[in-house]
Amino acid sequence: MGDRERALDAARRRAEAFLGTLDDRPVWPRASLDEMLQVFGTPLPERAEDPAAVVEDIAAKAEPGLVAIPGGRFFGFVIGGTHPAALAADWLVSAWDQNSGSSLLTPATVAMERVAGQWLLELLGLPSASSVGFVTGGQLANFTCLASARNAVLARAGWDLAERGLRSSPPVRFVVGADRHGSIDRAARFLGIGCAEVDVVDADAQGRMHPAELERVLDGGSGPLIVCLQAGEVHTGAFDDFRALIAIARRHGAWVHVDGAFGLWAAASPALRHLTAGMEDADSWATDAHKTLNVPYDCGMAIVRDPADSIAAFRTGGDYLVYSGLDPWDVTPELSRRARGVPAYAALRSLGRSGVADLVDRLHDNAVRMASGLRGLDAIEVINDVDYTQVMFRLGTDEATRELGAAILVDGTAVVTGAEWRGRAALRCSMSSWATTADDIDRTVHAIRALLP
Ligand SMILES: *Cc1c(COP(=O)(O)O)cnc(C)c1O
């Protein structure tokens, strides 16, 4: 075998070995970052090393520092696993090495991304002419949509942002819910909107924006306006009331953006679609493929109702670039990039419409099973309405809750992560992995019961 074949062979064997341990290994890593830095932190080698030997060595040394994220009992943050078709397609993306920003240069991967985008719009019930930009994740999807939004609301006020810049432009009002995801504030920061300039609308106990409060906040101002709503609060999984809120925002001439990193996928399930009712009337939507759709990192989608608004914000004037209709680089901030939409294409094809619906339903069923198992344990209070995929719980005191969280990680059966909710410590589980079974839920509840004080 040549160098390349031996290196790929090593990667395949090592990948299979890792995936084969997922059911039994501790979910949380056994090695710390310092230990990993010790292991990998050798001086830069002076001379070449055999490619296959490098791959073998990396895989062996990384082993204790790896998190069992693609397994069935990683419930931390909101993180999906890896669907087989998406994983294998992702390997091909690296082998093909197609620089997929331009439709002239890389027709095969651009075509698959374009079709994946159309399928996505169809599955989620969003306007079929929308632009779909493949970016690294929800953070960049929020940024990309909001950059288009800022351009558009300023253009409506007669201000050409691309030409005249931000310094003397009319101020853009930026209105968000109290329980928005932190990536909304970061996106605002990247766009030159300061923390003190963000208008925050109160939310209810589950984290949903109060319509009456939105009305009150919007009545208090005028000018270019962006309103950010949310499908899937990161702790509770709650959905804003899109019907009511979008009607109010529209009356005030707002651009409405929906952060639906994992929540937008509820629209793909006939049983859960009601949670997203009305969200199709927004102007832009951010979502992730690496969460609910279970493609490998990284893959998010920035969706904008009118592609002209994406183009106005992102099309480059560089004279060495050739235009041929809508190019991937016309709708996102990137130029050169991997074909990260190809694994999404493979996952959507492999699952099919019913498979995506089943996947989302199963995540919800798992959340209901987890909540019911936890409610069966005396000391535990489940805090949220388990309408979607998130379960948040706590013990009687913050100290006991935090201690339980630490003990769960040491135990290794599962990973749940901590949060603060309404001023109190909480633990939260996110059902995001296609690999999670009812048995995984029961094993987790069993392990937690054994750790209770
Ligand atoms: C995860 C998440 C994001 C950020 O997405 P990344 O893929 O981590 O960049 C934004 N909003 C919500 C609601 C999320 O759950």
TrEMBL record:
Coiled-coil annotated residue ranges, if any: none
Keywords: Aminotransferase, Decarboxylase, Lyase, Pyridoxal phosphate, Transferase
Highest taxon of the lineage: Bacteria
Gene Ontology molecular function: any one: transaminase activity
InterPro entries noted in UniProt: Aromatic_deC, PyrdxlP-dep_de-COase, PyrdxlP-dep_Trfase, PyrdxlP-dep_Trfase_major, PyrdxlP-dep_Trfase_small
The protein's required cofactors: pyridoxal 5'-phosphate
Family of the protein in this entry: Belongs to the group II decarboxylase family.
The protein's name: Aminotransferase class V-fold PLP-dependent enzyme
Organism of provenance: Microbacterium sufflavum
